[in-house]
């Protein structure tokens, strides 16, 4: 089987490319593959046309064409019966209004999905939103989760009950850092933030007297080390397409605090303490329960290590291969 993967330009973002390569590397052990990265990162008309032309030139006429994320409009020039799309979220659509909302719905989602054979959603939550917004016929939809990199392995840790190191990955608005900071006020801890923080966020940290440090632009190895050095991983987002830090933390063997809303609660399964991401008091109680209750920590770490088995590269790669073989 010949499979051609089309990826967005690397400068558009790191996360989609990383999770895609995790399962692609596994598929490459069994099948012949090619990877193509779009020449343009922007979403203006000229850049889109250049990317479409690039995809047309490199399309796989006989094998599988797989758009790994974001640049769904490439489906306009790929063989309809042999094209697969992986959908990570529909944030573009949900947080737009008026004409912009209409254009996103039709040209970024609806028509590309119509021009594809299968649309893979990375979570049940994403699938249900596709159905809600009537972006695609339900029979085309399949849920296959993101795969975790095999480099994430369990590392034992002696939990610091005096001043635990709490890790937050990402600084986007949806990561809910403002409420997290408010929840940590008065709790002896060190907050480690990965990602560029704004001046407003720095001021918020100072106002609530949070002991913190900040790093960004880390290598894969450095990211893993951040998990290893942590005592708790906090991921109380109010919006996600998936939530990779949850299973990355579970794979390392760290207790997780995350949101009690989809898709986080499904991704975490029983391997996390779940809290209302809109309630500062609930978030604070969640932190305190993990810090003070050793039995609870042991339980969610054990459940987390069990949960990550559903996200191994081989498991996810085989799920994709089953889809390819139906086309």
CATH superfamily of the largest domain: Glycogen Phosphorylase B
- Main β sheet profile: 6 strands, parallel
SSE pattern: EHEHEEHHEHEEHEHEHEHEHEHHH
What integer is the average pLDDT? 95
Oligomer: single chain
Strand order of the largest sheet: 2-1-3-4-5-6
The total domain count is 2
Radius of gyration (CA) equals 20 Å
Walk me through this protein's architecture.
The chain has 327 residues and is an alpha/beta fold. It has two domains: 160 residues, Rossmann fold, CATH 3.40.50; 146 residues, 3-Layer(aba) Sandwich (Rossmann fold). It is 42% helix and 16% strand. The strands form two sheets. A six-stranded parallel β-sheet has the order 2-1-3-4-5-6. Helix 6 packs across helix 11. The longest helix has 17 residues. It is globular. GO terms for molecular function: glycosyltransferase activity.
Structure summarized in a few sentences:
The chain is built from 13 helices and 12 strands.
Defining traits:
Rossmann fold; 2 domains; 327 residues; 16% strand; alpha/beta; globular
């Amino acid at each position: 089987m010949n499979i051609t993967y089309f990826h967005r330009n690397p400068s558009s973002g790191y996360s989609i490319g990383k999770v895609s390569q995790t399962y692609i590397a596994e598929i490459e052990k069994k099948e012949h593959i090619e990877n193509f990265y779009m020449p343009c990162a922007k979403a203006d008309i000229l850049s889109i046309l250049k990317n479409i032309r690039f995809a047309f030139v490199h399309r796989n006429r006989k094998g599988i064409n797989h758009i790994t994320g974001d640049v769904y409009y490439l489906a306009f020039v790929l063989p309809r019966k042999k094209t697969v799309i992986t959908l990570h979220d529909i944030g573009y659509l949900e947080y737009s209004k008026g004409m912009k909302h209409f254009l996103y719905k039709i040209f970024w989602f609806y028509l590309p999905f119509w021009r594809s054979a299968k649309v893979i959603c990375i979570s049940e939550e994403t699938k249900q939103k596709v159905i809600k917004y009537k972006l695609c016929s339900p029979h085309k939809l399949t849920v296959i989760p993101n795969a975790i990199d095999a480099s994430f392995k369990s590392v034992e840790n002696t939990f610091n009950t005096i001043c635990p190191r709490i890790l937050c990955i990402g600084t986007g608005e949806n990561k809910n850092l403002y409420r997290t900071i408010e929840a940590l006020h008065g709790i002896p801890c060190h907050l480690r933030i990965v990602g560029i923080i704004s001046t407003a966020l720095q001021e918020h940290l100072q106002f609530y007297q949070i002991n913190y440090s900040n790093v960004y632009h880390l290598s894969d190895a450095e990211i893993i080390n951040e998990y290893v050095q942590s005592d708790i991983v906090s991921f109380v987002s109010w919006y996600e397409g998936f939530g990779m830090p949850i299973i990355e933390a579970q794979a390392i063997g760290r207790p997780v605090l995350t949101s009690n809303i989809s898709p986080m609660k499904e991704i975490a399964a029983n391997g996390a303490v779940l809290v209302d991401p809109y309630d500062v008091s609930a978030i604070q109680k969640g932190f305190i329960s993990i810090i003070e209750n050793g039995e609870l920590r042991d339980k969610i770490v054990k459940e987390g290590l069990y949960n990550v088995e559903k996200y191994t590269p081989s498991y996810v790669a085989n799920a994709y291969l089953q889809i390819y073989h139906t086309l």
